[in-house]
Amino acid sequence: MSEAPAQIIQLEQVWRTYVMGAEQVHALAGITASFAKGDFRAIMGASGSGKSTMLNLLGCLDRPTSGMYLFEGNDVSAMDDDGLSELRLRRIGFIFQSFNLIPQLSVRENIELPLYYLNLSTRESLERAETLAERVGLADRLNHRPSELSGGQQQRVAIARALANDPRILLADEPTGNLDSSTSAQLMELLRALNEQGMTIIMVTHEAEIAAFADARLHMKDGVVDRIEESARA
After folding, report:
1. Domain range for 59
2. Which run of H or E residues covers position 83?
3. Is 222 contained in some domain?
4. Structural domain contains residue 205
5. Domain count along the chain
6. What pLDDT digit, counting tens, does each position of 62-96 carry?
7. What mean pLDDT is predicted for residues 16-27?
8. Spatial distance between the Cα atoms of 191 and 15, rounded to a whole number of angstroms
């Protein structure tokens, strides 16, 4: 019998509550869930269902109001701001809908940006940027600026940048939201290939066609996981 994959993330009765005047809004309402190494999960749900709050919390951009969040066995909810920053820098890669590239920098410089904070040498940074650009199919675009690239190419740069710190997980927030359907499919094939190479991916999307690339879909409603659908490919 094969060993069960190691859990990277474990959530136990996690709540995220916001105080708005005299009212309390429960964006997350007691979520218990886990994500294992090699998972490719899509988080879906209507506006206000809690999916963006969930992704922010998983990415250590927000903290739970109560409950336990373990990342590789470490209690995230007990970490201070410096600890959370270090975890984001060394363990988590982010992909955003709007790409978030720096327009004045070249493709190579955008990919290298996270490496600056890891204190890699100039040579190491350059070699890693070249390797990642090739991995996402942009080896011939290293000296181009974002404005010289298509939307799909810009998102590929963003994926390469997200991989620069050799993260344990990739978090993607509507990664195809600004792309046409053909480019979206190509991008999702790239993410799927990365997952097949062992990368753990958690993605928020409202598009069923995009979520179909994942192994499982977590449908959120009123701050909880309402149901989980396994993909036929899982």
Report:
1. 40-63+82-230
2. helix 81-91
3. yes
4. yes
5. 1
6. 989 999 999 999 999 889 999 999 999 999 999 99
7. 90
8. 30
For residue 84, how many other CB atoms are within 10 A of its CB?
Answer: 18
Question: Is 6 part of a structural domain of the chain?
Answer: no
CA atoms of 13 and 32, how far apart (whole Å)? 5
Please state the pTM of the whole predicted model.
0.91
For the packed helices 122-135 and 107-117, what is the interaxial angle rounded to 10 degrees?
A: 130
Transcribe 39-57 into DSSP letters.
-EEEEEE-TTSSHHHHHHH
The pair phi, psi for residue 138, each rounded to 5°, is -125, 30
Six token digits for residue 191: 């993410």
Sheet hosting strand 216-221, strand order edge to edge: 92-96, 169-173, 200-204, 40-45, 216-221, 224-230
| Residue 215 domain flag | yes
CATH number at residue 219: 3.40.50.300
Q: Which one, of 77, 59, 20, 74, lies nearest residue 172 by Cα?
A: 59
